[in-house]
């Protein structure tokens, strides 16, 4: 599947056409997964293009590399300006996905990665609608466990980490489900391959803690804050498999998935097998926020034009 990428990409400080952004086969990241990435959405509301929570994404972008002393040789301001710049340069007037990433270049077969390892940075974008069916998707518990802080840092959004997501997704698809749910090393619920998970029980919103190896998702954080602002009780706590399977409603959160209802797990329906009321409420709130229709959260949006 090749993406309908916008004509210009940003590569090591310059806007170049897509066909000029190439890397050699000796690139360390291809061999060892030493790449860091972010996934960001920008929303077109017919008046302007708004990048959602840009500051938080840029902060996590740098922090991910710091776990491994991988250098991001551009300031936060330069990265921020270049993300906005890629939208402007491509004259984007459609909702889109933006992918900034950096990676270790020619560093031989050296596993002793230090801040001196050479890195490149690139940003591309493409028009993007729904990742999943917003009427709800099916999920299956993966037999693969989410990797934990006992092996590699789950908070580092790095290429190599996503092999765990890939193998869980393959299994879920083979079993006929739309998405996988991974348990952590203790058997509690962690997250989906590229999304955080929330359950609804008796009107409360519950999501696994970061100690269950869940990524500190920016959409997760938005839902926690919006939920509390709506006077909904929100808990970050250990979530057992049986709490998940007996939940009233379940939904996923993520930049790509936005808010996606899960309507069944391992073939067993949640509620009546349709998106629940609180899930629908959070979906509506999210849409209003990203479309700049809720002034209380306009500080989460960066206008491109
Ligand atoms: C493993 C994983 N969990 C959760 C998320 C959701 O995070 P965010 O809401 O910041 O996109 C992502 C996506 O970035 C992810 O890759």
> What fraction, in percent, of the residue positions are helical?
10-25%
> Could you give the distance between the termini?
31 Å
Describe the main β-sheet briefly.
9 strands, mixed
Low-confidence stretches: none
CATH superfamily of the largest domain: D-amino Acid Aminotransferase, subunit A, domain 2
The CATH first-level class of the largest domain comes to Alpha Beta
Bound molecules: pyridoxal-5'-phosphate
Q: How many strands appear in the DSSP assignment?
A: 17
Shape: globular
Mean pLDDT: 97
User: In percent terms, what proportion of residues is strand?
Assistant: 25-35%
Order of helical and strand elements: EEHEEEHHEEEHEEEEHEHEEEHE
What count of helical segments does DSSP give?
7
* Structural class based on helices, strands and sheet pairing: alpha+beta
CATH topology of the largest domain: D-amino Acid Aminotransferase, Chain A, domain 2
CATH architecture of the largest domain: Alpha-Beta Barrel
